[in-house]
TrEMBL record:
Protein name (record): MarR family winged helix-turn-helix transcriptional regulator
PROSITE patterns named in the record: HTH_MARR_2
InterPro entries reported for this sequence: HTH_MarR-typ, MarR/SlyA-like, WH-like_DNA-bd_sf, WH_DNA-bd_sf
SUPFAM superfamilies: Winged helix' DNA-binding domain
Matching Pfam families: MarR_2
Classification via SMART domains: HTH_MARR
Domain spans labelled HTH marR-type: 16-148
UniProt cross-references to PANTHER family, sorted A to Z: HTH-TYPE TRANSCRIPTIONAL REPRESSOR YETL, TRANSCRIPTIONAL REGULATOR, MARR FAMILY
Amino acid sequence: MPAPQRPGTETSDALDSDLGWTLGVVFRAYIRTVDALFGHLPGGPRGYQVLAAAAQELPGGQGALAQRLGIDKTVMTYLLDDLEQAGLVERRPDPADRRNKRVVATEHGRATWADAQTRLEHAEDHVLAPLEEADRSVFRELLRRLAVQADSLDPVHDTCRLVTELAPDAAPPKPRRSARR
């Protein structure tokens, strides 16, 4: 199926088939939608990801979660402080190693996550609307496989460091402190 034409264009240009451009356009549409959905959560989309991991009781402690999500450990600490203050998560000693803290969703956190997950599914359907249902499933699976492979080859453990590596002249982002500090 040929790519839909942009208004005012009669033929496809080189950008339409550029992987970086196409990924960027879809990513920006997704981020705009998700930012609007999760603006009420501490940390926005990142807060949602932490809450989702906590609600699903993914294995590993606070440090492992930060590493998996590509969140700087310092930023993760402030994000968890804010999520904890909102009553969404708690830090508990890890039974396997009491030096580590596990991030666990509270009942309020689980309910908030369930509601957010439903709204996210609707938002994702909106972003993927140009695809038929069967194509959406194939797209998600292919994208998941690419992401798992890319992460295993070159995991992003620190997004602040990644920005510094990719744009050495840019100042690294400073961790945002909680408004309550």
